[in-house]
Design a protein that fits this description.
It contains twelve helices and 31 strands. The chain is an alpha+beta fold. The chain folds into four domains: 173 residues, Protein Transport Mog1p, Chain A (3-Layer(aba) Sandwich), CATH 3.40.1000.10; 186 residues, tricorn interacting facor f3 domain (Immunoglobulin-like, Sandwich); 88 residues, Zincin-like; 100 residues, no CATH class. Strand 2 and strand 3 form a beta hairpin.
Length: 594
């Protein structure tokens, strides 16, 4: 039986068996399988040989010799499908023999498709003198074998073809043996633990000498299909003392890598996974730069679940999307203990393509907003003070409030409808943010930021990226002020090394406390400090240092700390050195050494 299967679809052309089926979805009642076509102008050609059903899907007027087609193979075994044996023999005895010296295997991994065990294989080679990549999902359902195959002629743009194939794969419906629906689709791949996967990804770029210099991104957001595609051109600099000809590109969860291309469009790697190590077209000299373009997408499982993301919001029922860490990286973001490393600040621009009714708010400044033919294109740029994590929120957003101050123009964005859309609440949030911004500018130093964007989204805790704040409309005023303070402490001054997490918690909280003390009196300060001392919050130790060195000296030390380390990485030791022995003694806590 395996020998018969191995010969299926390994030839360069496959004759059409019976007539074509011009239907949106092919359904096979015998095998209880349904497959949507990739594009509206494609048709199915279904045929049957002994014990096997083969269904091709291809352009209506296309020739199979052009290798632009896919296939669905359905067959049964006398016993349970030996999945690994079938996959190995298809690769070695069918495809390798067919492609000969041009054969190469690009990807082979085990995963889950439609709740069933599967093996995913991607191979490359030449068929009828035409270079082509072949992707197969080999799926076992008891005694039944389902093979889904996609072909990519290398002479055609891969991105658009892949988008159609992605729709077919996502819509593949395989019923259980008794005809009942298959288990809920929990993954196209085994769901990893995000922390473990990110740790492994971080190690993969741990010894990399590269540093990013610029990111130019294009994001295609299709809320109806629950799909987000990214194409990011990354300009990198070789920081080594010798020429380098390899580069490792990594993505944090929940993103999946598709392709890495050179600056000229040459494909350097095609695979699914969090990392890719590619050989560059030519070696890059020390301190010289090169560029690669990374194509990737949001993991569809994460899109469905929508929780546990860096910012806590996924593609929700109303089509909202919010992301913080979404850019590819070529260098580690944490040391071996998980502590943040200095981030190489880079220029950033992003063009967002989305439906006309949607808008996107990103870190940086809005430089273009064009609506045409039902689509909207918005471009955001961060060039004056690039941010470590250029977060964005896309959804049915509108400007709910605007406020101008002497130092910054404030814009509040809110959903078109729902509990977050209240104009009065947006105006109230704008007032709290504006007052806090003015106070922190006087206390620590002004920022070179002209526009501040606040997005009211359903986030569990406020988040900040550059000059963009992500707040819940229900956030307490102290939480809003603490979020504003993080523009100074965490974004402009970035904390690294032992004590980094402590400073990220303590300094913004103390800043909000200072605001309350200045506007409401010292009694409020004392009450908040007692509450912090009762739970051992970092704020309590910082307030203890203030009392030890004196209020005036403490404020001077914090302002000096900000001015010396803005746009730089700072450690707890840098802060302690400015507070003197008395302040150092007050801050000598176990948390400061972690």
């Amino acid at each position: 039986m395996i020998g018969v299967l191995l010969s299926l679809l390994a030839a360069g052309t496959v004759p059409q068996d019976t007539g074509t089926l011009d239907v949106p979805v092919y359904r096979n009642q015998e095998y209880r399988v349904a497959l949507p076509r990739p594009f509206d102008d494609w048709v199915f050609s279904a045929g049957r040989s002994r014990q096997t059903t083969t269904v091709l899907f291809h352009p209506r007027r296309g020739s199979l010799r052009e290798q632009l087609w896919g296939a669905l193979v359905l067959t049964s075994f006398e016993g349970p499908v030996p999945l690994g044996e079938v996959a190995d023999q298809r690769v070695q005895e069918a495809w390798q023999a067919e492609l000969g010296r041009t054969f190469s295997i690009l990807t082979r991994d085990s995963l889950v498709v439609a709740g069933l065990p599967a093996i995913h294989v991607v191979m490359g080679g030449a068929l009828n003198r035409l270079a082509v990549d072949v992707e197969e999902y080999i799926i076992a359902r008891g005694r039944d074998l389902i093979v889904l195959q996609f072909r990519y002629p290398r002479g055609l743009p891969r991105d658009s073809i892949a988008a159609g194939y992605e729709r077919s794969l996502a819509g593949l419906d395989i019923r259980a043996a008794d005809g009942s629906p298959a288990p809920p689709r929990t993954a196209l791949a085994p769901q990893p633990d995000p922390a473990q996967r990110d740790a492994a990804t971080n190690r993969a770029v741990g010894s990399a000498p590269w540093a990013p210099r610029a990111f130019d991104a294009r994001v295609q957001f299709d809320p109806g299909a629950g799909r987000v595609l990214f194409s990011v051109r990354v300009e990198v600099v070789n920081g080594d003392v010798r020429p380098r000809d390899t580069l490792t590109v990594a993505l944090r969860w929940p993103f999946v890598l598709d392709v890495v291309r050179s600056a000229t469009g040459q494909v350097l790697s095609e695979q699914r996974g969090p990392t890719a190590t590619v050989r560059l077209p030519q070696a890059v000299e020390p301190q010289a730069a090169t560029a690669v373009t990374v194509g990737y997408r949001l993991d569809p499982v994460a899109a469905e679940r929508g929780r546990g993301w860096p910012i806590g919001v996924g593609i929700a029922s109303d089509g909202a999307l919010a992301l913080i860490d979404w850019l590819p990286t070529v260098q580690p973001w944490a040391d071996s203990l998980g502590r943040p490393l200095p981030f190489a600040r880079a220029r950033f621009s992003a063009r967002f393509d989305l439906p006309e009714a949607y808008a996107v708010v990103a870190a940086g400044r809005l430089v273009a907003d064009v609506v045409a033919l039902g689509q909207r294109r918005m471009t955001w740029v961060a060039d004056r003070d690039p941010v470590p994590a250029p977060a964005f929120v896309a959804g049915r957003l509108r400007r709910a409030a605007t406020r101008s101050t002497p130092s910054v123009t404030l814009r509040v964005w809110a959903p078109d409808a729902g509990p977050l859309a209240s104009a009065s609440r947006a105006d109230s949030v704008a007032g709290v943010v504006a007052d806090a911004w003015a106070f922190f500018a006087r206390a620590f130093g002004r920022l070179a930021i002209e526009h501040l964007d606040v997005v009211l989204v359903d986030v569990p805790t406020p988040r900040v990226a550059g000059a963009t704040l992500f707040l819940s409309a229900a956030s307490p005023e102290d939480s809003i002020r603490t979020a504003v303070a993080r523009v100074w402490w965490g974004e402009t001054v970035r904390f690294v090394g032992p004590g980094a997490a402590w400073m990220e918690a303590a300094l913004p909280s103390w800043s909000a406390l200072a605001f309350r003390a200045a506007t409401e009196g010292d009694a409020v300060r004392q009450r908040i400090v007692r509450e912090a001392e009762a739970v051992g919050a970092p704020l309590a130790a910082l307030e203890s240092a203030r009392r030890a060195v004196g209020d005036a000296a403490f404020r001077v030390a914090l302002r000096t700390f900000f001015l010396q380390y803005r746009l730089l990485a700072a450690t707890a030791a840098d802060l302690i050195s400015l507070l003197g022995p008395a302040g150092a003694a007050a801050l000598n806590t176990p948390a400061m050494n972690r």
